[in-house]
Amino acid sequence: MGFPVVGAAAGADRAWAWVGGLGLLVITAFLLLPNPTASAVMYDGIEFACVAAMVAGVRRNRPAAVAGWSLLIAGQAASVVADIMFDVYALVLHDDSWPGPWDVAYLISYLGTISGLCGLLLRRNRGRGYAGFVDSLLVGVAFALLSWVFLIRYIAAGETMGTLGHVVTLAYPCLDLVVLVLVLWLLTTDGKRRAAFLLLVAGMATALIADHLWAFVDMTSYDPALSVGRYVSASYLLSFLLLAMAITHPGMVAVGLPTPAPVTRPMSWQRLGLLAGAVLIAPALLAWQALTGNGTVRDALPIAVASAAMFLLGLTRMTMLVRRLHRQARVMQQQAERLRELAEQDPLTGLPNRRTWDSALPAALVRAGRDGTPVSVAIIDLDHFKAFNDRHGHQMGDRLLKEAAAVWADGLRDGDLLARYGGEEFVALLPDADETEATRVLDRLRRRTPMGCTFSAGLAIWDGRESGEALLHRADRALYRAKAAGRDRVERAQAAAPGPRSMDLAPGSPELQESLRHLG
């Protein structure tokens, strides 16, 4: 029973390929029909079949962006209604007036297409910013200038259509420019570009090309019934077929999904080249008209307006890029600070770690030597910590370390430093503290030790000459004496042995090594 289901699923996944193959065969047959009436009927039938395939594709694939796809299909359906109305008026009623009732349906089809594309774009581009939209607008302005110079200006100059005819006729290229901007924006969005995505873009691009070819045919007075008009009609059919293939493809569900954050496309050289070429269209047209018009620029005002618009869009894009760089810089700074904290802090207690201690101790000795102030160093070790771990478990041991670190750090003076040295050992740096003051601070910490525990500490007072390592070594020796004396006490280190000022000696020098041997 399982095999037929698998086969059916596989056949459903290949539905878009069947639609494409059969559609190409039917479009080829359309090109071979000699009779205009039969061609019109077949043309409308192919469009209707493509819209039916689109509806079936949405019902089968059940995309999340069903509203966007439905509006897009509604736009194509309105175009089919407009074509049928046009054919009925032209072939049955022999009414070739302009504009006609079919223009209302054509304009409604644009609204459906534009609304559908906006619905898909807003979902796909959710939370991703509008840099791609600005780039698309910039390219759209450049194409609008080209459209004005080579198409719209001639339509606007017509004197036989009347005001309504001018408005309707100019609406088509203007709405085409809106569709172009949306298609370009779709191309600039991040995310995967599977077959359904590419088929959708190809279908919309083919429709735009067909619109401009039809405008050229109409402007040059070609008879649409001739072969040129037939190929333009085939281009429209191809756009319907590509859209039907896109919507019946299983990958169409991903077109309207928000783009995952990690899938961010950097600006490609192709995109930069397209933007650069778009910006250069205005000066190129200016130079061309100046050269061919003996210094007269016929479209000076449209070129100036387009240049200003592209300049402002470029400035907007640069502002967005600078803000993005600032945001990235802040994120990188925060990450760097976080990494520095991780490198300098003990992950369990949140105290400075040994790396931080190794940097802080020499700096404190340098300051004390310069200012002539005392410095005390203590090594603190929790008493019987291993036995506590064995009796209560490692989780309680970690809790003891964290709570002890918190209460000890709270009991320090301003400017003091408590760091975790390793295991249950901590080190305290007490600047400007002589033996009496340092002992008082350590006794206060000892009384605050949580969970009924105690600690032993070895205290060493810097003699103004020894190195940090030697000072710490004396504190460590004092700690061992505190442990041996019964724990829960602070033991003062013995005075340092006389020797050269190791602060002035280079690491590894014979004099420093000799001093350390005496100190050991």
TrEMBL record:
Domain named GGDEF: residues: 373-495
One Gene Ontology term of the molecular function aspect: diguanylate cyclase activity
Pfam families xref list: GGDEF (PF00990)
GO biological process: cell adhesion involved in single-species biofilm formation; negative regulation of bacterial-type flagellum-dependent cell motility
InterPro entries in the cross-refs: Diguanylate_Cyclase, GGDEF_dom, Nucleotide_cyclase, Rev_trsase/Diguanyl_cyclase
GO CC, one annotated term: plasma membrane
Transmembrane stretches, start-end: 15-33, 69-92, 104-122, 134-155, 167-188, 195-216, 236-257, 269-288, 300-322
NCBIfam families xref list: GGDEF (TIGR00254)
The name this protein goes by in its record: Diguanylate cyclase (GGDEF)-like protein
